[in-house]
Amino acid sequence: MIWNTNKECMPREQMRDLQGKRLQKLVSYVYHNVPFYRNKMQEMDLSPDDIRSIDDIVKLPFTTKQDLRDNYPYGLQAAPASEIVRVHASSGTTGNPTIVGYTRRDLAIWSEVMSRCLSAFGVTRNDTFSVSYGYGLFTGGLGAHYGVENLGATVIPASTGNTEKHLRLIRDLNITGIACTPSYALYLAEVIERMGLSKDDLHLHIGAFGAEPWTENMRQEIQQRLGLKGYNIYGLSEIMGPGVSYECEEQHGSHINEDHFYPEIIDPDTLEVLPHGQTGELVFTTLTKEGMPLLRYRTKDLCSLMEGTCPCGRTNIRMTPIMGRSDDMLIIRGINVFPSQVESVILEMKEFEPQYLLVVDRKNNLDTLEVQVEVRRDFFSDDIGAMLGLKKKLSDKLKSVLSINADVKLVEPNSIQRSEGKSKRVIDKRKLV
Ligand code: DLL
After folding, report:
1. What is the model's pTM?
2. 262 lines ligand 1 (CB under 6 A)
3. Whose CA is nearest to atom 22 of ligand 1?
4. Residue 186 in 3-state DSSP?
């Protein structure tokens, strides 16, 4: 179902017009309320009057994660403290966390865009939905929670942890949908099997999966093991949280809520805007946000924007799945390697569990890549010949996809650490020294 036909199916010209009007208002708002933006614009000899349509967005300055860190905690906040009703934070691995304040109107818009996503996944008022993203400073839990309530379905605020108890609730409360990371969905599948349950004991039919990159092969694996249809949901705390974009029943790219979040793709080196269809860094401008609006925020996520209308009837633009973050990309002996490439290869082979870890190191001045992967119980054996054969089979496939040699290490089922939230698939020891 389409939650907001007016906005999701708006003719393109009308959408650009709306975006232009909202951009003009936004630029004037940040110019007058955020010294950081006023200074940047003055340095560029730019005034709010120079912004007349959405095409003028290219004149505006970019915002980076570093800018947010440098202005910690509230330097980029535009609304007065008395208008802020909630704060979330995103923890980076280094430096200050990013603090994001929301006004009441921001929260209403967040619930609205989340309801659009859930409707596109097929959620209705008759569904009971478990939100198994972490609740707290992370935006996943509360963001999905209020979207489910706003839509009128029943929300079960399960959060993460206590997986067996959670699974009993899923069974006993006839829970029909679940929102969690794709890696947690896989973990659920494992625990179901360990508890002697089967997917047929549960009534799950919709999964809202996001917060980390996942491949099409991972989707097939989760769908088959949990007996549901898994949809992609994308977002980031700086821009709002989950709900920036969502898949429809076509599952061919994720529609962006572009009346609120204006997307661009840039070349991360030259900062030039790239045409639709080309892969680069995704950039968002928050067209309607009051608490902490951002101009041209560089997400570091790599994808492309898709031309053309979608058979579902929505006209809002789609983005391809995130292939990785520019800071996740490993450069190994000069070759670019994304963990998602390794994932695709592993998940295509029936001998392996969808659990892997990349360990990158530097030995004798040469980069090394070790790929640890769990062998499925049915294929794990003491027969050295069989194990060596399997190792070679995977090494050859990885070589053809990555163009570099990876040292494959087969490990026993259940030996790689599982994740309830975002999974950690890479250890880069080169960064640790
Ligand atoms: O992960 C918000 C979210 C929660 C999205 C629940 C979807 C579901 P952050 O913690 O700020 O916010 O992390 C944002 O996670 O820049 C991407 O790199 C990655 N990411 C989020 N969703 C997806 C997705 C939340 N569907 C960062 N596919 C983003 C790939 C994703 N990567």
Report:
1. 0.93
2. no
3. 211
4. helix
